[in-house]
Amino acid sequence: MTDPSLPRRRRFAKAMGRHAEHHNSDRIGWLRAAVLGANDGIVSTASLVLGVAAAGTEHRLILLTSVSGLIAGAMSMAAGEFVSVHSQEDTEKADLAFERAEIKQDPVGEQRELAGIYAGRGLDQPLAEQVAAKLMAHDALGAHARDELGLSDTTAARPTQAALVSAASFLVGAVLPIAVVALAAPAHLILWVSVASLVFLAGLGALSARAGAAPVWRGTWRVAFWGAVAMAVTAGAGALFGAVA
Predict the structure, then answer these.
(1) 3-state DSSP call for residue 119?
(2) Where along the chain do its domains lie?
(3) 212, 204 contact by CB (below 8 A)
């Protein structure tokens, strides 16, 4: 009998015999890249603005510098994510190729290895051997990829997706402090950029926490705190160099 406490769509899906659960780990591929890009866009752009503003740079040059930072940062994020995630993908493919060769050369030994994994997770040895035999017959490489190597479609490396998401989210994050620079009075620029950027970071922390079903206040505090540290250090360095100059 279907549990009436379940949401209506899930009750219908369960009644039809379909698997209706959606797990937060399904978002891990794009969520990490999106949060990293947006956070870097806000922090790096705001820090750049505060650094050059604290050094006494005129308003027009601050705006020009921040826009240049937006373009350079977005390209850097895209290239960096693509290269790093592509390296992960290459490693995954190499592991799968090695495992495929092992299965072809010694299928009995690989089945025994798989049974040992299941027994180590709590199955009785006869049942572990039966499960291993069934899975080897159904999809030997998939079973070893998942249960021996820890690889799955959910966590698989996707370089192009990571690059595009990171670049786009960096642009969105960087535009926010730049808009404040364009609208704020030069005399109060540092104050407005600092306050607004902390608000943006807190909002990003809350949104990312909700997307990942994590505690909202913890995510909000963590992102805002480290963003404040980065901006304070950069502003201090800018003030120091401006005084020396």
Answers:
(1) helix
(2) 26-244
(3) no
